[in-house]
Predict the structure.
Amino acid sequence: MLVPMKHRITIEEVARLAGVSTATVSRVLSRPDVVRTKTQEQVMSAIRQLDYQPDAAARALASGRTHTVGCVIPTLDHAIFARSTQAMQTTLAQAGYQLLVASHEYDPVTEFELVRALQQRGVDSLVLVGTDHAPRLWKALSAWRKPTLLTWSCDPRLPSLGFDNEGAAQMAAAHLLELGHRRMGVISGFTTHNDRARSRVHGVRKSLALAGLTLPSTWVTEQAFNLEGGRLGLRQLMSGRQKPTAIFCGNDLLAVGALLEAQRMGLNIPEDLSICGIDNLEIAQAINPGLTTVSLPTQDLGRMAAKSMLSAIAGEVIAAQSLLPFELVIRGSTAAPRKSPTMSQRRT
């Protein structure tokens, strides 16, 4: 039995139902920012009632745009990237754009291939993370005639929206120094192909140097950016004869893993060991004690990245470099180091 083909709704039918011209319907679909809100609502209501499905290929041919933005991130396995990417997708969707997301797992070869695939797919712009990219990717981006935005870090070669990662780590280390800690360890993510991780380690070194202190290489460990990495890093740092009294972690997952492992080892947090992270994920205030951390407004980063790309696609000039603010959130995982017993106390 043959099933009759369903009649395909046309843009003219949408326009008639909405009481507007076909040009207005087209503008609502391609440039909603230039159409009055009331008119947008009329058109979108008609589209929903008729179940109108715009022909993407025809729209792209007519406008020269695919209404897609490509986003290549290091990994889909980190909540911190999920938060910013979700905010970016929501903002773009409100403007009629679709976000295409891919991850390269910190592999520059894979990143290059993904970017080229998105360019060949015809995305209207690209959003990348960080400043560590293969030379051939930098060359390909400079030759591409569409907008590209760097996020999380800034580089003068492309418009950038990010954080002062070195400064954020300096803030955390300065807090630990103010509490009286002089033996500080670092659990970092892998720094290869990750400028953010390197900048955060450098920020700790800088704070210590300003206090006349150094960070021994034996008190820096690189681990996977997850809970297990934090556990492994904590065990490594606490295995030496002389142990740190405070530990800065390159993100909150590392910090929570370190805190849980310290408790498993019988250490009291923060009396025996202070731990500080960076990100301010939801888990930071859910654990006991709560995690002291540097809060990064990652949702704002996603929203602002989307708005920057929409402006750039429209031909507007966007800021060359923008740094977002961050703040220290002090909770129960940090305190002054336990005082060593005096000589008289040792004799009794």
Q: What stands out?
A: The CA atoms of residues 22 and 318 lie 31 Å apart.
